[in-house]
Amino acid sequence: MASSTYLSNPVLTINSVDLTDMCSAATLTYLVESLEDTAFGTNSRTYTAGLVNNEVTVTLYASFAATETYATLFSLVGSKTVVTLTPTSAAESVTNPKFVLTDCYLESLPVINASLGELSTYDVTFTGGALTIDTTP
Q: What is the pTM of this model?
């Protein structure tokens, strides 16, 4: 049985700032919205492809240092940016593609998310934008 697995250790940049060392989770979702095209006389619903609506959600450790999470994200709220994710830190290739989400929108930033005895994190979601996949080293 053939299988392909990898240890999750993605490389993350937001607005050209490498935040890999501050990231504990990342999910990139490629979504094509469904539009119903069911016609009279059919017995079941049918759908066709609509607009692409990509989304990337990352969990980042909170930091107020000059080039860390707060400084990078705060000015991006309400604007478009570029987010890149690569599955591992190895060279880009067909088996380690670089996913680039261009013109994705950041709607909000939870400035403080604190719990007693825990490291503070931000769950941040970027929506929309165009997804490209780079496999060239």
A: 0.88
H helices of the chain, in order, are 69-74
pLDDT, tens digit (0-9, with 9 covering 90-100), for 20-66:
999 999 999 999 999 999 999 999 999 999 999 999 999 999 999 98
Taking phi over 0 as left and psi of -120 to 50 as alpha, with beta for the rest, 38 belongs to beta
Relative to beta strand 130-134, strand 32-36 is: unpaired
CA distances from 59 to 22, 64, 93, 120, 137 (A): 8, 15, 25, 10, 27
Q: What is the CA radius of gyration of the chain?
A: 18
Closest C-alpha among 104, 117, 109, 128 to residue 33: 128
The Cα–Cα gap between 79 and 111 comes to 17
The two three-digit tokens of residue 96, written as one number:
């380690």
The CA–CA distances, whole Å, from 82 to 16, 49, 103, 132 equal 7, 25, 6, 11
Q: CA dihedral defined by 101, 106, 112, 118, rounded to 10 degrees? A: -20
- Which CATH class for the 11-35+47-134 domain? mainly beta
Domain coordinates in residue numbering, the chain: 11-35+47-134
Amino acid identity at 25: A
